[in-house]
Amino acid sequence: VLGLHAHLFFPTPLFLTLGYALGVGMGALLGVILLRDWFAGIFRHFHKELVSPILRSISAILITTSLGPLMLHTDIIMLGWWHDTEEIGVYAAAQKIIFLLIVLPDILSVSIFPLLSRLTQESSLRLRSILERSLMILFSLAIPLVFGGVVLARPLLSFVYGEEFSSGALTFQILLLSLLLLCPRMVVQTLVFARDKQKTIAFATLLGALGNIGFNILLIPRFGAPGSAVATLISLFLNRGFLWREAKKIQEFSILPRLPRMLLAGVLGPGILAFTLSLFGVHVLLTIFLSAVAYVVLLILFRDPVILEFRDTYKRVLL
After folding, report:
1. C-alpha to C-alpha distance for 300 and 310, rounded to whole angstroms
2. Do residues 160 and 96 make contact, with C-beta atoms less than 8 angstroms apart?
3. Residue 75 pLDDT greater than 60, yes or no
4. What is the per-residue pLDDT across 253-271, written as a single tens digit (0 to 9) for each?
5. Nearest to 305 by CA among 121, 140, 165, 84
6. Cβ(290)–Cβ(273) below 8 Å
7. CB distance 130 to 207 below 8 Å
8. Helices marked H in the chain — which ranges?
9. Distance CA 230, CA 173 (A)
10. How far is CA 91 from CA 142, 179, 221, in A?
């Protein structure tokens, strides 16, 4: 609310920053007030034997939380070394949409953490089932976003930011491919984390961060924002590929056999249908809606198991 107020009535970077800072501060203060009873019991429930294992975990988590933003946000800084502010603005605009699109998958992933924590104490058929079903749901969200986003990149950027940002379509299309790595990332990372392998996560984050810096140096001077997008994609592949391999050591699972029908529905719905509608000049929002409906209908016609997963989840949560 404060950020929006600053944007509408005091549209300067200073007031936008102040609005954001005040909003975060007020949120933190409210959190402390709501959790005051928990804070009051800190010393009463203190156990010194937990200090050492917690510190060991924190050291790895600190590295992860420090290097994670480095892997995803150094692009803007490094673009500024070789290119002008226009290139930075185009890249930042495309990147913000990507961050928005992964909010729902992240929420879904975090919601299964307690269950995975219980099941990862020992490998089991139930753990494999939960992993594969969770990944299937997340890929079912990522696939239409990728196909639809690639097709509608230019009109979507023009609608959200204005026609002058449509030049960032290629950058946006490349970053959209990262959704196939970002959407399922929390489930895989949760599995590794639940086995107390924070150091593995920290190493994977370091690998991705260094890879991003290295490929940025190679690609940004020549290719600009699209080169930076490719560097991000490669670094995410290194990071997620390493974690995926470590997760499979903990519990064997397979997701590829579950994807063909989703991919076909993504090609026909958010892919071909969205492209056809855009050729006829249909508004981008209506195109997105119709493509999404077509994708769901196709999944139903193809009898994709993910439809049963969403139906069962709906029954458990809302009925």
Report:
1. 11
2. no
3. yes
4. 888 888 888 999 999 989 9
5. 140
6. yes
7. no
8. 2-9, 13-34, 36-40, 51-82, 85-101, 103-111, 113-119, 125-151, 153-161, 169-177, 179-182, 185-194, 198-223, 225-250, 260-266, 274-279, 284-301, 305-318
9. 10
10. 21, 16, 14
3-state secondary structure of 18: helix
The pair of three-digit structure tokens given for residue 242, joined into one six-digit string: 């390493």
Please say if the pLDDT value at position 317 is more than 60.
no
Residue 230 above 90 pLDDT?
yes
Task: Supply φ then ψ for residue 137, to 5 degrees.
Answer: -65, -45
Phi, psi of 84 (to 5 degrees): -85, 180
Concatenated DSSP letters for 247-299? HHHHS----GGGSHHHHHHHIIIIIIIHHHHHHTT--HHHHHHHHHHHHHHHH
What amino acid is encoded at 287 in this protein? Answer: T
Q: Which DSSP state fits 48?
A: G
Work out the end-to-end distance of the chain between its first and last CA atoms, rounded to an integer number of angstroms: 33
Buried b (16+ CB within 10 A) or exposed e, 223-262: bbbbbbbbbbbbbbbbbbebbbebbeebbebebeebbebb
| Tokens describing residue 20 | 């954001």
How many Å apart are CA 112 and CA 129, to the nearest integer? 13
What span, in angstroms and rounded, lies between the C-alpha atoms of 89 and 279?
A: 28
